Amino acid sequence: MTELYLYDTIGAFGISANAFIEQVQAVPADSAITVCINSDGGSVTDGNAIIAALQRHPAGYTARVDGLAASMAAVIAFTAPSCVASDGAMFMVHNVQGAASGDADEIRAYADIIQKFNDSIITRISAKTGKSVEEIAAMLDEETWLTAQEALDMGLIASITAALAAAAQLKEFPIVAKAQLGNIVAELKSLREVVATKDTEILALR
To answer: Is residue 94 annotated as part of the catalytic site, yes or no?
Structure first.
């Protein structure tokens, strides 16, 4: 399994599709990918290209949200074959945004393009979760923020990584460290005995 980190804005001012896809292509064909996400989102087209590259990877991929998956980053997370999240992770979805200039006809045409991108995202999330198109559209309209538990309850992610497991490892650490320290002390004592024996042998030769 290979971890790839999406820890920046998606697009030219952060992690571009080109840069991320180069990382995907460098992963061995027999190694599954885990996309680790902490991103405020970004370019829809770059995000779509990243999703397509991950879907082409022979060994498949999953997503893990470590901090924030907002906007396009949430789309990458929610449309992954499986997505897990840390218990402190947050998600945010909203309508696709953009800016246009020109006359009234040009701006109306641009609005239609934005709506097509929006509809595509709604369809993807709806198909992955089984939620209705209307329900997902309402979430985007409202700019919805979700905790990891809320995302799990809605079926948007598969599971939440257990904080208790990490706490258990920390609890066990002093015991392990003490055992390792005992081994080191024993080795040092043994080494000191060897040195003392060698010193005795040298004195005997003099």
So the answer is: yes
65, 88 contact by CB (below 8 A): no
Share of residues in the chain with pLDDT > 70 (%): 79
State how far the Cα of 199 lies from the Cα of 161, in Å rounded to an integer. 56
Residue of 16, 39, 43, 94 with catalytic role: 94
The string of pLDDT tens digits covering residues 172-183 is 545 444 455 566
Helix intervals (H) in the chain: 17-26, 44-56, 72-78, 104-129, 133-141, 148-153, 163-205
Taking Cα atoms as reference points, which of 72, 67, 69 lies closest to residue 88? Answer: 67
* SS3 state at 201: helix
Q: Of the listed 16, 39, 43, 71, which one is catalytic?
A: 71
Is 101 an annotated catalytic residue? Answer: no
